[in-house]
Each structure stands twice: as C-alpha cells, then as structure tokens.
Amino acid sequence: MTRISLLAWQVAVAAVIIVAWQVASTTHVVGDPDKIAFFFSTPAAVASQIWRWVVGGSIWYHLWITLLESMLAFVIGSAAAILIGFWFARREALAAIFDPYVKAANALPRVVLAPIFTLWFGLGIWSKVALGVTLVFFIVFFNVYQGVREVNTTVLSNARMLGMSERQLLRHVYWPSALSWMFSSLHTSVGFAVVGAVVGEYLGAAAGLGYLIQQAEGVFDVGGVFAGMFVLAAFVLLIDWAVTLVERRLLVWRPEISKSGR
Amino acid sequence: MPQAEAANEPGATRAPGPGDGRPAVRLDRVTIEFGISGGQLFRAVEEAGVSVGAHEFVAIIGPTGCGKSTLLNAAAGLLLPASGSVEIFGRPLSGINRQAGYLFQQDALMPWKTALDNVAIGLEVAGTARSEARERARSWLARVGLASFGERYPHMLSGGQRKRVALAQVLIRDPGIILMDEPFGPLDAQTRLIMGDLLLKLWSDDRKAVLFVTHDLEEAIALADRVIVMSAGPSARIIGDFPIALPRPRDISEIRVEPAFQALHRDIWHMLKGEVLKAYGTGKIGGEA
After folding, report:
1. Interatomic CA distance for residues B209 and B217, integer angstroms
2. pLDDT tens track for A207-256
3. CB contacts, 8 Å: A159 with chain B
4. Does residue B200 belong to any structural domain of this protein?
5. Residue A160: its chain B contacts at CB < 8 A?
6. Same domain, yes or no, for B140 and B33?
7. Architecture of the domain delimited by A42-260
8. Mutate which of A151, A160, A161 to disrupt the B interface (most B C-beta within 10 Å)?
9. Residue B110 belongs to some domain of the structure
10. Are the C-beta atoms of residues B214 and B228 closer than 8 Å to each other?
C-alpha cells in the first residue's frame, strides 16, 4: 500500500464514523435523535466547541499546562529510573533486597496515590507531575535494568579484550545498551507521562486538558467532554509523532528502526 | 597425561623466528571445569598443554563441543582454569590478557558504533586522541578493504564485512598474540577462503603469535604452522601435534590440491576421525563414515 492510499483509507475510517455519528444524532434512522445527541452530542456541536476553544485561545493555556506536566513527569521519572536501574543492575544484592518492594509498588494502581499527591504537593502542577513520575519510572526502570543485565556477552567480552576498564565498559557498552532498551519503550513511557498528567488534572486541578474534560462532565456537557477527548487525542498523536522523530534520530544503528522507518 | 606433555614439547622447541625462546602462550596441564545444575562439576578440558611460539601460527582442531573455545578463553583470561598454569611471554596470567587480541566467532562489534568507531575504540580507550585513533582506524579499514564503509553501522554490513571490521578492530591495537575462535565459522565457503587469504596476508607482515581454533581441518592446515588435535569432550585432552611444513606465502585455495597438503590431511584426519565419531556418539552415524 502506498503512503497516499494508506492516508486515504485512514481518513475514510474517520469520515465513516463521523457520518454515522451525524446521521444517528440528527435523523430518525437509528432512534430518537434528541436522546442520542444528549448522550453522544453531535459532530457539529463538538466541532464548534473545539473551534470556540481554538479561536478564543483558552485551549492553548490548558494544552501548555498538560504538556509541561507531561514533560516534567517524563524527564524526572526517566532520570530517576536510569539512575536506580543502573545501580540495581550492577548491584545484585541491592536488586534482590528491593525486589518485592519494587514489584509491590509497581502493582499498586497509581490512581489511589492521586489524593495523597494532592495533599502533599497541592492543587498545582506538581501533584500531576508526581503521578506521572510514578507511571514513567517503572517502565523506564525495568527497561534500563534489563538493558544493563542483558548486554550481549560476546560484545562485553570483546570490549574487555579491547582493554576497556570498568568505567569505559559503563560508558561504551552498558550505557548505550541500556539507552537502547529505554528508547524502545519511549512511546509507552511518554504516553504514560501524558496519562499521569491528565488523570491528575481530572481528579483535581485548575488547568489542563483533564480539568477541561472534568468541568464539562460536571455540567453534563457531553459535547465539551467529546471535544476535550478529541483535543487530547490530537495532542497524543502529535507527541507520538515527535517521539518517533527523536527515536529515528537516536537509534539509527538499530536494524528494525532504520528498515521500517518507524 | 603423557600424550599432552609430549604434545607440548615440539611446540616449545620448534617456535620459528627470533625471540628469547619464551613462548607467547603457554598452557600447562590446564584443566577447566564448569558448575552445572545440581552442584556437579562438568570437566570440559583435562590437563591440556599448548604452547605457541612468539611468531607461530597454531591451529587447534577437534570435534564440536570438545572445549577448544574454552581453552582459548583460558588463554584470553576470560576463564580461570580449575588447575594448571597459563603463562603469557613467560609471565603467569592474571585477569584479562592485555597482550592478546581476540577474534570471536559471533558478532562482537558494538552495534551502536559505526565501523570506524568500532575499529578506533581500542586505541581510544588506551588513551590515544580521538582524531588520531580515527585516522589510524581509517587506514586499517582500508587495509581490510572497507575504506568506504567507515560510517556504516554493523547491521548495514554483510557477515564477511563485519568480520573484516572485527579483524581491523583487533589488529589496530597491535597485540603480541591473536586468539581466534572459529572466526570464519559463520561465513559461506567462498568468503572463508577470501578471509583466510586476508588473514595470512596481514599476519605475514609482522607474524604475531596466533592461536586459531577451528573444526575445519582444511582451514587449519592451510593457515597454520602447527595443528594441535583435541579429543572429544567431556574431559577433552590434547592428543596430537602436527607440524605443517608447507612453504609460505601460501595461497589457501591453491594449496589444497598439493600432495603434501593432502598427505597431512590424511594423517591428521586419521586421528581426528575417531574423535569426531565419538563426539556424535559411536555406532549411530559411525556406520556410514
């Protein structure tokens, strides 16, 4: 399939859904259009809501807040995870001692932490960043840990035979290997950073996309909820695209990346 | 093990070239064991004695799984023998063998570095300035015929090209000893011949000590000054030591048809065959060989 026809098909899927939605919410083909419009809103209403946000300019502030929270969560969570992942991978005993605690913390649904973070960090952005960090941390941590532990033994032996000291091994072998594992989970971890930010906003905030959606829901403004979801979806797609660009740049040496161009 | 000791002697006395007579590598009554499940010990190699002169090319040959590579790893300092001694230029080896370069059977290049950086890294970690290291790496890439491939990552190279890069990576450090573990094993037959010729050409420039492990008898005879035969494992021993008095320089694709080559091949194969059959379990495929 060529790029053009692929894009055409992707647009066609959206068109079919929107047309079906429009038909169901404005005609009697499926059922009572007023009822359907109450529960699902109409494409026109959602579009005009998004238009008002964009033209009125209020959406940019909320987008910026969500973006800021996501980026902070990603950076802080990844940095902590790389540090601790490296440390644990190089100190078997440490990893063994903390193993049950790491597993327990990872198994905990992070949403239950949100009220505590609000209590600790207030209603501002930091409680949302904290929630994002707890999500990002474990994904990156497990990947870095794995990356350091599963360095190809031949490559490692070769590096030793080439005269590398422990520090040089860290820099030339362990570090790139761990980074490659981390980058392979970049889509997931960035996605979770956004999830943390939005869920945090949804549970209590004064700004951000999650806040917008929560406000609309509070007054049964289904159109507003859908509009917020569409903006969020576009936002996530954009971020995912940016991650793909970064990944392509950083992992040129990986066969699957440069072949598939993903 | 009388055979092992007997096998040790000719190498020590026959080391060609100058030098103070101390062999580059001397493995004496080396036994190597591995812990396996259930707390038992698996004895891979038993009381093996191998010595490689300072300018000598020695090939070790034996059936698959006989512990040839294990013995090589002991000489590299990657493995500690359970007993016996490893001496490098007369000094007991402790830790990694700093005077040796090691060409691995599997891909050992760092996949995140370009071919050029992979070759230069050995000099860089030894303290050579990056620009100079890269300059020398460039000329080494040219020597292995990959002058225009420096910016490629390993996965963009063919198996044979990766081996060339690995060869340059090892040789640029100018090691006194080169250890090779079936380096051309994964390559196709034609590429193996070409790589063998390239190796001999590069080696003949300064004739470092080479310990070359292979299961390919023709390759062993074509390349080496001496072929050492190992028995089937476990508890593999050295059972034979054959000097290869074929003249150099050799063309390894031509040399195979010479009568002297064929006579050596017949002699060594006579000894090796029994071990190969043992390795595959006698009586199972023994009938057809």
Report:
1. 20
2. 999 999 999 888 888 888 999 999 999 998 999 899 888 888 888 888 76
3. 110
4. no
5. 78, 96
6. no
7. Orthogonal Bundle (1.10)
8. A161
9. yes
10. no
